[in-house]
């Protein structure tokens, strides 16, 4: 609770101060209204039964109307400054979540627990945090209102003042239990809710639409979605029935207490010969105080529930990142002098103890072109992710010029590496940004963007678009132009060429290209790799003939390495794969 308060206050102390002032002033309006109602009622009674003054009646009614208008104005101002505070808090907290997600080790993304934790952390978390602060302010205002009401009520009966506290405890206990049940339900349902969203997304998104219509298995997916939906719904119904029973019980108790207090108020007025206005004032105090105490109890239970939820947010924010950017980290200048040395590299994903890479050792000379080949699942992409520092939880050593890469500052290391991955992104933004994201510092450098497009073959794609570089891409937003997979891949290649990198990774760079585009790219492969150390992952072994050195992977192990000619003479795994592919072309 206190951490949430500090977080929201740090967003804008001035706005928080204004909200507090508005709340404090608003807290005393109900007690002032009670006093005005008492005098107005007495004035009306005197006018109707005695020689009262119409002017007095108008004065008290006018004062009551003015106070009500002032209360409405305060509430409107409070809603406006609260909106400003909510916007700032939402921006702050969502920025914290995004920055934390960007700093978390990539291997965490392989764990289902990460997605459960992330969903709990971001699930209405801004609303929850602000609800927490709102409830604290509301409780503070309500406490001041109750204090002022007690002072007014004390003038008539100290016993009534003390007795009103009885309204608080049963309501508080019940609502805190309800808040705990709801939190436990939300935590229990997180994995099932993610599956629910997943299957609904499959049923409604563009990527799955074609396959669903072709294979006609949408009814099965609907069954899966329906099962998870009603599982969650039935759990919610059970909790709601429990809360309904407890709420009904406590409201019954409060109703009985209210009836007894009202009867006692009538007896006080009758026995002490008090005026009608006094009874109306006492009745209004009782009603307002009961309602306000209920608000306090509900607010306290809400604070309890929201604090439990906010714990998930702060737990996620405290998740360890890849590394702390300390001063002792070495900045890499991007110059490979001796090369890259890999010794006994072993790697396993956190969700699976079986190693994906097993005791791999090899050496890469500066500016060499390295091809990595092997069957699907052999560990090729995982190996590259380790080589460029994306996966850091390995055993063994990867050294750049004798320095273990985990000793380098992450930012300086990655600023000298570019890559085109198999699962490259298709940014739903204009062409210019799609390519320029490769080096955001040169996002407005049209000449550099055009040069990168020419090197990747994307220029031919851009010429066909209605607005050239300014054409919005993708089907997500209105006016966007969809491209073929191969055209998207050329843009991804252009993005990698934007950066003046020392190392470039091409993970199946021609997988979605037509044969002519593929042949053209490989003809220029030496030019594209000039002056850089290049890692090429490919299933098409014809392209490997252009590589200086070839690594052959199988079941996570490096089983062969050498040039194309050396491996063909060896007549091992590489020879078998090459011959198998070449038969199809003879």
Task: Describe this structure as you would to a colleague.
The chain has helices at residues 2-11, 13-27, 29-49, 54-103, 112-122, 125-154, 158-163, 168-204, 206-215, 218-271, 276-317, 380-387, 410-414, 431-436, 446-456, 459-463, 485-497, 515-523, 525-528, 564-570, 573-583, and strands at residues 340-347, 357-364, 369-374, 395-400, 403-404, 417-420, 503-507, 533-537, 549-554, 557-562. By secondary structure, the chain is an alpha/beta fold.
Concise summary:
By secondary structure, the chain is an alpha/beta fold. It has helices at about 1-10, 15-25, 30-50, 55-105, 110-120, 125-155, 160-165, 170-205, 205-215, 220-270, 275-315, 380-385, 410-415, 430-435, 445-455, 460-465, 485-495, 515-525, 525-530, 565-570, 575-585; strands at about 340-345, 355-365, 370-375, 395-400, 405, 415-420, 505, 535, 550-555, 555-560.
